[in-house]
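HEAT repeat domain-containing protein: structure, please.
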Amino acid sequence: MLFLLLSLTAATFITKYRRTAKDKERAEFRSFIQPKIVEGVLQPPAKLESLYPVPTKEWQWEVIEEILIDIAGRIKGEYLINVTTLAKKIGVVDRLLLGMKSRRSKVRGESAIKLGYLHVPEAVSALQRMAESKNKGDRIAGLIGLGSLATKEALGVLLSELSSPSRWLQVRLLHMVKNLGSDAIPSLIEALNGADIKVRIMAAEILGDLRAFEAIGPLEDALSSEDKDLRARCAAALGKIGDVRSAGKLEFLLEDKAWEVRAQAAKALGLIQHRPGAKRLANLLRDRSWWVRTNAAEALSQLGEVGFDALRKAVTGKDWFAREKAIEQLQKHGIAYTESDGTISNEL
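Here you go.
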């Protein structure tokens, strides 16, 4: 028994010693190679030849990949192109492309994601094939890899997947496309004008979140869609973009037959702070939909004094629903108002 305990203790010590030695070796290699990689990234691509010895061990490749990916996540423009060029010259890209063909799912997935992080445009076709795989792990890895690329082809695949029945995947894809920022806008506008209604709705939402001013025209055109969800999402997007020139079309939607559209149009007019729309918003305080009444009251509170005046008038009106929402907003903002019996409330 004592012998067994001593053996186990010795084995643990040896394992720990080896791990410590390996960590030390890895750290030493990183401190040696990282300055060289940074130097290479800061040089024009033409000067990136023969800066590095070819790695001979798997962990050395891993360290180089980690450094390149870390740098790629911190920079943009010409220097990002240098990172990609450098990754090709040292053989990292070829190694990862080969890894995508591995029999091991983990290796395939990691290789796909790393190629995306390194912004390798030549990997798009391979990532597209992986994104279409029946294997769930491969499919997600392919989509994540594509999500880091801003090429038209990559965005096309991501947007086509927005209609996926998986809500988790939809949310992940939305996050990836939003992270691409302005690079994604042209493809999003194209998707907004497409045939797939689910993709059009998602594209409208992202364009609003990105505050894409160049999408105002296409979003306004889509307000005439027969699909109420698309109309509502486009109205919401126009509100987030905040261009007052959209106010006229949004006011027209205040009479839409779908309450979802009326609610989003009211909210958008508040975000735009369209004061001429105060009277029409006040009329919505009597709407049969709770959401429409709520959004209209909140929108009025965003219009300043003209909005508060409309809310005060609603307090003394005969409509109970309008009165309730008006009082709610006036109390929220600490605005004094006169009750129907002449009592002054919220007086400072």
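Notes: The chain has a mean pLDDT of 85.
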